[in-house]
Amino acid sequence: MSRRSALLELAILGLLHDTPMHGYELRKRLNAVLGAFRPLSYGTLYPCLRDLLGRGWITEATGTTGSSAPPAPSSRRARIVYELTADGKDHFQSLISQSGPAAWEDGTFDVHFAFFSRTEAAVRLRILEGRRSRLEERLDAIRTAAARGRERLDLYTAELQRHGLDSAEREVRWLSELIETERSTGAPPPAALPPEPPPGGSPASGPATPA
After folding, report:
1. N or C: less crowded end of the chain, CB within 10 Å?
2. CA separation, residue 188 to residues 41, 121, 124, 137, 177 (Å)
3. Share of the chain above pLDDT 70, in %
4. pTM, entire model
5. Secondary structure of residue 188 in the 3-state scheme
């Protein structure tokens, strides 16, 4: 399964955990709340829904459109409403309990963060600290590159580099505030959690190079 497919699966299960939805409303929520999926086409959404139905993680029933649905010839029209099953809820909980690099990398952190209210405190803390550590590595790399090549950079490349540095510094400050809040509420330290094996079960060779 590709990273995008895995994230879409997590997002759908998470949104349906809150309330049953028909495809139009679900697509709108994915596009509006989870920017990683903008724009999300029906051609991407419905194959994923069919797969989740086949796995028994969601079920479908005939419902009616709400006020947020697009105009229809009649005032109300039957639609397929998707709802999370008990197995789907268990699978969703297993997904948000994962706290390894896949939960804090670019393109995945935002989706996991969107469901922090349903994530255990210790897992939240580990993800936040992992994300901060990754960004601190990136900051070191940017600063080193800037020191070595400042004289060779044109104006626009230098500005792009400065923008990346400013963005990473702001996110590190934001993450530090969140981490402090998590710690003040009594979350156990990340070391209390067992380390998660990397994909394939082999020992990790080191941190991935930031994109």
Report:
1. C
2. 40, 8, 10, 24, 17
3. 75
4. 0.74
5. coil
